[in-house]
Amino acid sequence: MDPTPRTKQDPRATWANPVDKLAMGEVPAEAININVSGKRLSGPLQGFGQLWQKRYRIRFEDANPTPAEVVSIWKREFGSFWPKGQRFYAPLAEIAPGEVGLINGDVPGRQVLSTGVMVIYADDESFTFMTPEGHIFASWITFAAAREDDVTVASVDVLLRASDPLFEFILMAGGHEREDEHWKATLRNLAARNGATGEPTADRVCVDPKRQWRHAGNIRHNAAIRSGLWMMAHPQRMIRRPKD
Amino acid sequence: MTDTTIDVEFDGASAMLRVRGDVTAASDSAFGDAYTQATAADARALLLDFSDMEYMNSGGIGVLVTTLVRCQRGGQQLLATGLDAHYRQILTLTRLDEAIAVHDTEAAALESVA
After folding, report:
1. Is the pLDDT at B62 greater than 60, yes or no?
2. Residue A242: inside a domain, yes or no?
3. Beta-carbon separation of A140 and B25 below 8 A
4. I need a labelling partner for B76 at 20 to 30 A (CA). Which of A45, A63, A89, B52 fits?
5. What share of chain A is helix, strand, coil (3-state, %, to 5)?
């Protein structure tokens, strides 16, 4: 499915302006913001690992919201569709081009991995995130809804490389499957919010099997390592973690 | 939405890919076919001419990445021309300009080909 909206919108209103470094706005007190502000955006060209194209889709079988209605709800309530243990702190405004969102994800050992995303594109029927340096993936992620055979279909399209050798190892050791479960659960929750049911599908294609060794040094930005060091320096945060 | 059409022309070892219409995720096959045509003629450099492009969304940026990967694997250069200021900004935002050389004119692009 093509996440292209049926009606073209002014491209100047749908794309973010270029930024040198990310600036995070105000975040809730319980959120950990240590790997977003001051970081550069990092797409698949800047990543280390193999290049993967992933597509997750769900057909809304027994409800018929328009694609624009689905995406409007998705933008407003984005983090609420994520599975337990993963928290998305949305921008104060709704998801819109140029806005930056913060992610705190639980990892074993009562640790939290802190990272984020920037909204680089948004129209009425789709929006796209790009990740900062240090994120697990150097990627673009497009969320969209469209009509297909008179059925509304929601999709998540990811183009990614693991950011560095450590994250590449984690992806190969089950990380891809965990990511699949994350987005499939998200799509199930989105369908339920729209009064629909359906079973998500996942497709994965390796576009480039080569690793970009010239970007192995990205590990200096690794959000997991930096988050772990930060948690060791702030052990009280390991105890006082927000509830889902 | 307008379908993507790409006409391929040649200048020595360079292929000019004249992109018309909208560039979206649905453009992947048009870009793939144009790449195949250029490669079959042993093109060592591919110049994307966006002068007649009407619109590009984020899905289109993904198509540019897969085209770039094809070129990198084939040892070919990928260049671009005909982008207005807005789409140049988008290539800067997405950091695609670090791998796709953007030129003001076709002549300048062809002159830069190694």
Report:
1. yes
2. no
3. no
4. B52
5. 30, 30, 40
In a domain, A127, yes or no: yes
**Cβ contact A18–B56 (<8 Å):** no
Query: Does a structural domain hold residue A38?
Result: yes
Interface check B114 vs A, CB under 8 A:
no
Distance from CA of A29 to the nearest CA of B (A): 30
Q: A174 lies in which domain range?
A: 30-210
The CATH number linked to A137 is 3.30.530.20
Most confident of A26-35, A160-169, A219-228: A160-169
Paired tokens of A29: 């007190």
- CATH code, residues B5-112: 3.30.750.24
A118 bridge partner residues = A100, A130
Q: Do A2 and B96 touch (CB under 8 A)?
A: no
CB of B95 less than 8 A from some CB of A:
yes
Structure tokens at B75: 């040892």
CB contact, 8 Å: B51 with chain A? no
Determine, yes or no, domain membership for A70.
yes
Residue A60 to residue A152: CA distance in whole angstroms: 6
| Percentage, residues of chain A above pLDDT 70 | 91
SS (H, E, C) chain B: CCCCEEEEEEECCEEEEEEEEEECHHHHHHHHHHHHHHHHCCCCEEEEEEEEEEEECHHHHHHHHHHHHHHHHCCCEEEEECCCHHHHHHHHHCCHHHCCEEECCHHHHHHHCC
B86-101: pLDDT as tens digits: 999 999 999 999 999 9
> How far is it, in rounded angstroms, from Cα A26 to Cα A38?
15
CB–CB contact A120 B66 (8 Å)? no
Report how far residue A218's alpha carbon sits from residue A138's, in angstroms, rounded to the nearest whole number. Answer: 10
Q: What gap in Å lies between CA A120 and CA A135, rounded to an integer? A: 16
Locate the domains of chain B by residue range.
Answer: 5-112
